[in-house]
Design a protein that fits this description.
This protein is mostly helical and 73 residues long. The chain is built from four helices and no strands.
């Protein structure tokens, strides 16, 4: 999937993950998960978690870690 055809929740999660690429993956993922939990619409959050459950295609590895953390919240 190209960047122009990514679902919005994947594109946004990947963009946020790029902003934290300089941090260790666990720190970045926790920060991203906190942002998503605090700011994103619940439907977008649910779509991201569903995307991860469906295989997480095209999801940045750190964004995928963040989505995994959201599953428990």
């Amino acid at each position: 999937m190209s960047a122009t055809t990514l679902p919005p929740h994947v594109r946004l999660a990947n963009e946020i993950a790029r902003q934290f690429a300089h941090k260790p993956a666990d720190v970045a993922a926790a920060t991203i998960a906190g942002h998503i939990k605090a700011v994103w619409d619940p439907r977008m959050k649910a779509a991201l978690v569903s995307h991860l459950d469906a295989g997480g295609e095209d999801l940045d590895p750190v964004a995928a870690l963040a989505a995994q953390q959201l599953k428990g919240s």
